Amino acid sequence: MSISNFIRDNMRAILTEWTTFAAKTAPPDGEMTKLALTDHAEQILNAIALDIETHQSQQEQYEKSQGDEVDLDAEESAAAIHGRLRHASNFSLLQLSSEFRALRATVLRLWLPQVSRMSDDTINQMVRFNEAIDQALAESIVTYSERDDRTRDLFLAVLGHDLRAPLATVSLVGDLLGRPQTPPEQIPALAERTKRSAMLMSAMVTDLLGFARLQMGAGMPTVRAMLEAAEVCKTAVADAQAMYPNASVVFRAEGDLRGEFDNVRLLQLVTNLLINAAQHSDKGTPVTLVAKDDGDAITLTVSNVGPVIPAESLRSIFQPLVQLEPEAGHDARPKTSLGLGLFIAQAITKEHDGTIGVTSSETGGTVFTARLPRAHCHAP
Question: Number of H helices and number of E strands within the chain?
Answer without folding.
Answer: 13, 7
